[in-house]
Design brief:
Elements (H helix, E strand, L loop, with lengths): L1 H16 L25 H4 L19 E6 L6 E6 L4 E10 L11 E11 L3 E4 L2 E4 L1 E5 L5 E5 L2 E5 L12 E4 L10 H11 L13 E4 L4 E7 L14 H25 L3 H29 L2 H28 L6 H25 L2
Parallel strand pairs: 4-9
Antiparallel strand pairs: 1-2, 1-12, 2-3, 3-4, 4-7, 5-6, 6-10, 8-9, 10-11, 11-12
Helix pairs in contact: 4-5, 4-7, 5-7, 6-7
Length: 354
């Protein structure tokens, strides 16, 4: 009996010595907010580590089918990002200077890059945030120029929104808006309609470049058709609401412009007015992408690019005529505002006549 008791103690000691240590996870110093399983020195502290680890709450595979967008609005530059299982990613950055024309490229300049790479393994920060970095990124088109159909294409090794990132934070849908960085919210308010006080949780995934303070919104590529029990999407009604909200939001800036005592104040108010209407257009454009059939959205996008060229050319002509004087800022934002308001009304007429 004594021999059996000694053997049992020996086996128990052997089992305890196999927990943790070099045979387990690498012994690294954890970053703030990262949950580390294992470790400890006493048998009682190590006992819970013998239980199977909980299933991870997030995996990059969950982001398949989501589009991440970093943009100034429907009328400007954008970076589109797709993230895949395993942490690979690809996307495109695009900007334009359609007012920059010469005899060689009479249709202006398109600044663009395709990119691809991999992210590191995500680490949990809190219930709704995960942290990771860019492991590698490449630009297959390189750094070069070419003219296609009268447009100068400038390929650049850059992915605005990801450039300069040392840490990226991913916010899960449902993340409390009040706890997210203000600089992140400034980029995504229009896309997510966060001007509405009743929206207290993030409607989709969010991606934040901490160092550069750049924020991506997201939407489901296949979230187009409403369920049969839901009311059909009425783009004309949705656009009327967007226009009414923008008109109300613009009132204080219109008053500020009317009462401005200096040119600097007028320039500031004029720029704020443009941001209101540009944000309205961006908000509506995001809604269209979520509801319209792909074919119709592609047609509208081509028309939108034509409109962007026309708007930028008009702004360039107005500011160029003033040769960069103190009035140029207000003149440019005024033209851009009027073009944007007209575009919203053109879209409203289109959807009302469908």
């Amino acid at each position: 009996m004594k021999k059996q008791h000694i053997l049992a103690l020996f086996l128990a000691a052997a089992l305890l010595s196999g927990c943790g240590g070099p045979g387990g996870e690498p012994e690294e110093t954890p970053e703030a907010g990262v949950i580390v399983v294992g470790g400890g020195t006493s048998g009682e502290e190590n006992a819970p580590a013998e239980e199977p680890a909980a299933e991870p709450e997030f995996d990059f595979a969950q982001l398949e089918g989501w589009d991440f967008i970093f943009s100034s609005g429907a009328g400007g530059w954008f970076t589109e990002l797709h993230i895949h299982a395993g942490g690979s990613f690809d996307g495109r950055f695009q900007d334009s200077e359609m007012g920059d024309i010469t005899e060689e490229h009479p249709s202006g300049v398109l600044i663009t890059s395709d990119f691809e790479g991999h992210f590191t393994q995500p680490e949990q920060v809190n219930d709704y945030t995960f942290s990771f970095r860019i492991a590698d990124i490449s630009y297959p088109q390189g750094d070069r120029q070419e003219i296609i159909a009268g447009t100068l294409y400038e390929y650049t090794p850059s992915a605005y929104g990801l450039d300069g990132a040392e840490e990226l934070l991913l916010y899960l849908p449902g993340a409390p808006v009040a706890e997210l960085p203000e600089m992140y919210l400034n980029w995504v308010r229009s896309a997510y309609g966060l001007y509405e006080e009743e929206i207290t949780e993030l409607p989709g995934y969010g991606l934040y470049n901490v160092q550069e303070e750049n924020g991506f919104s997201s939407y489901r590529e296949d979230a187009i058709e409403p369920a049969p029990t839901e009311a059909a999407f009425d783009p004309a009604l949705a656009l009327e609401l967007v226009i009414d909200e923008a008109a109300a939001e613009a009132v204080p800036f219109e008053e500020q412009l009317a009462q401005a005592a200096t040119q600097a104040d007028m320039n500031e108010a004029g720029q704020a007015l443009y941001q209101v209407w540009d944000g309205a257009l961006n908000r509506f454009w995001q809604t269209l992408k979520e509801h319209l059939p792909r074919e119709e959205m592609e047609t509208l996008t081509r028309e939108q690019l034509d409109w962007i060229r026309e708007k930028e050319a008009a702004v360039q002509a107005e500011t160029g005529a003033l040769e960069g004087g103190s009035l140029a800022g207000l003149a440019g934002s005024t033209v851009a505002t009027e073009y944007t308001k007209d575009r919203l009304n053109e879209l409203l007429d289109y959807f009302q006549s469908r």
